[in-house]
């Protein structure tokens, strides 16, 4: 079923921000790396004299640099150097058994840690919209896939929505792209203030924004979307921007078969709202995919 909702009243003052995400040190990976050094050490001790396994120590050292970071990786590299020196009985002298392996180990750990950090940075950039600094379409679609799997197991409802900015092209044409970017950033900030910490908001492309609302039935979605639209209208009025919002939303009482089906329906409802007069909300409720 679907319903057409008129322009809402101004929102209430209650809005929850996004919860902060804690980043834990991967102690398990550190323990595995140290266990790897210990295993190579035992093997090194059991080998005949002269058959040092200095290069094999690089495997847990490289893993430590990659999974726990360059600083802790340096510590694992130092432990590996000492282990190799003890196992070899210092038979190659100070330089051959301590200095050279230490340089190689810490260099390997640092390079792997730096490579990992660069990889994660580039990965984050590929999933972040450069204008609003919020998730982009790629990040949103990935999260939708994960959420659908979880919702399919729990058989809980979920809602997805997409909104298009009516009149945004006129802002760009008359006031320039810098002002258009200000509009987009204001919309993004307003959306983030109006949703829960468990919800996902993304710039889906151009002047379209997408929302994923897990564990949200039709009643909860209607309340949240009404508050959201009210907040957006207030934000636009405060800046004097003649921008309104065409919103399409779909609530599934149990998860659909695929993210493609979900977003196609959401997109269709949004264009229905836009083609039907703009500044409206079309909200469809479905039993299942």
Task: Summarize the topology.
Layout (H helix, E strand, L loop, with lengths): L1 E4 L21 H20 L11 H11 L1 H19 L4 H34 L10 H18 L3 E9 L1 H8 L1 H18 L5 E6 L2 E7 L3 H22 L4 E9 L6 H17 L5 E6 L3
Parallel strand pairs: 5-6
Antiparallel strand pairs: 1-6, 2-4, 2-5, 3-4
Fold and architecture overview:
- 40% of the residues are buried.
- This protein has helices at residues 27-46, 58-68, 70-88, 93-126, 137-154, 168-175, 177-194, 218-239, 259-275; strands spanning 2-5, 158-166, 200-205, 208-214, 244-252, 281-286.
- The protein has two domains: 27-126; 131-286, Reverse transcriptase/Diguanylate cyclase domain (Alpha-Beta Plaits), CATH 3.30.70.270.
- The chain has nine helices and six strands, in the order βαααααβααββαβαβ.
- With 289 residues, it is of the alpha+beta class.
- Residues 1-24 have low confidence and may be disordered.
- Helix 1 runs antiparallel to helix 2, helix 2 runs parallel beside helix 4 (93-126) and helix 7 packs antiparallel against helix 8 (218-239).
- It is elongated.
- The chain has a six-stranded mixed sheet, sandwiched between helices.
């Amino acid at each position: 079923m679907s319903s057409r909702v008129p322009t809402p009243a101004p929102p209430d003052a209650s809005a929850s921000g996004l919860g902060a995400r804690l980043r834990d040190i991967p102690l398990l990976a550190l323990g595995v790396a140290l266990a790897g050094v210990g295993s190579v050490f035992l093997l090194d001790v059991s080998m005949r004299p002269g058959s040092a396994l200095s290069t094999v120590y690089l495997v847990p050292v490289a893993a430590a640099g990659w999974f726990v970071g360059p600083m802790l990786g340096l510590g694992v590299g130092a432990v590996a150097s000492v282990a190799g020196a003890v196992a070899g009985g210092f038979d190659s002298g100070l330089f051959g058994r301590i200095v050279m392996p230490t340089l190689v180990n810490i260099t390997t750990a640092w390079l792997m840690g730096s490579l990992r950090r660069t990889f994660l940075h580039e990965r984050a950039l590929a999933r972040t919209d450069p204008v609003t600094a919020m998730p982009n379409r790629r990040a949103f679609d990935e999260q939708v896939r994960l959420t659908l799997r979880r919702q399919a197991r729990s058989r809980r409802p979920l809602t997805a929505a997409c909104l298009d900015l009516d009149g945004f092209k006129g802002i760009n044409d008359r006031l320039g792209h810098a002002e258009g970017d200000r509009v987009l950033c204001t919309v993004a900030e307003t959306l983030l203030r109006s949703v829960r910490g468990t919800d996902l908001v993304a710039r889906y492309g151009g002047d379209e924004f997408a929302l994923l609302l897990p564990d949200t039935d039709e009643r909860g979605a209607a309340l949240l979307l009404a508050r959201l639209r009210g907040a957006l209208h207030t934000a636009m009025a405060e800046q004097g921007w003649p921008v309104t919002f065409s919103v399409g939303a779909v609530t599934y009482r149990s998860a659909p078969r695929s993210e493609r089906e979900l977003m196609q329906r959401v997109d269709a409802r949004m264009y229905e709202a836009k083609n039907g007069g703009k500044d409206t909300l079309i909200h469809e409720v479905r039993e299942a995919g």
